[in-house]
Design brief:
The protein is built from three helices and seven strands. It starts with a strand and ends with a strand. It has a single domain, classed as 3-Layer(aba) Sandwich (Cytidine Deaminase, domain 2). It is of the alpha/beta class. It is globular.
């Protein structure tokens, strides 16, 4: 399935940027949950997680935290749709990210550059990294 758009509320982007600022220079990380509608992924929930590695170059989320978030999302009728992390480089996948993207299937990788606050979305498609457009929508009232 081709995914061409990641729709995310501004409040979630603010939450992710804030999480990255708080732990900089360590890579921040989070899990994204939502639903897939045609060629669009709609993020409905963000779960910020601790980078177990406390690294400036890699991130790892505790498996227990992943399992807990997946169970809760399933109860809420949401799917796991992607991962977020920050790094002190451009907002694009590093060679290490690309290796791990292959393991996560169709998951979106949302990446924030802590250098310039730019954000990019990517996914692995047919063995190649594809950029996904980000559609930021206003927070629901």
């Amino acid at each position: 399935m081709t995914i061409s758009v990641l729709q995310i509320e501004g409040q979630y982007l603010d939450l992710l940027k804030d999480a990255a600022r708080k732990v900089e220079p360590i890579e921040a990380c989070a899990m994204l949950f939502g639903e897939i509608k045609d060629e669009e992924i709609v993020v409905k929930k963000v779960v910020v997680a601790t980078n177990k590695l406390h690294s400036e170059k890699r991130f790892e989320i505790d498996p227990e935290a992943v399992a807990e978030a997946l169970t809760e999302a399933e109860r809420e009728g949401l799917e796991f749709v992607g991962l977020f992390h920050s790094h002190p480089a451009p907002a694009s996948p590093s060679s290490l990210d690309v290796e791990f993207m292959r393991l996560w299937g169709d998951a979106i990788w949302l990446i924030l550059s802590s250098k310039d606050s730019r954000i990019g979305a990517y996914r692995m498609e047919n063995g190649k990294v594809s950029e996904v457009a980000i559609k930021c929508v206003n927070t629901k009232s």
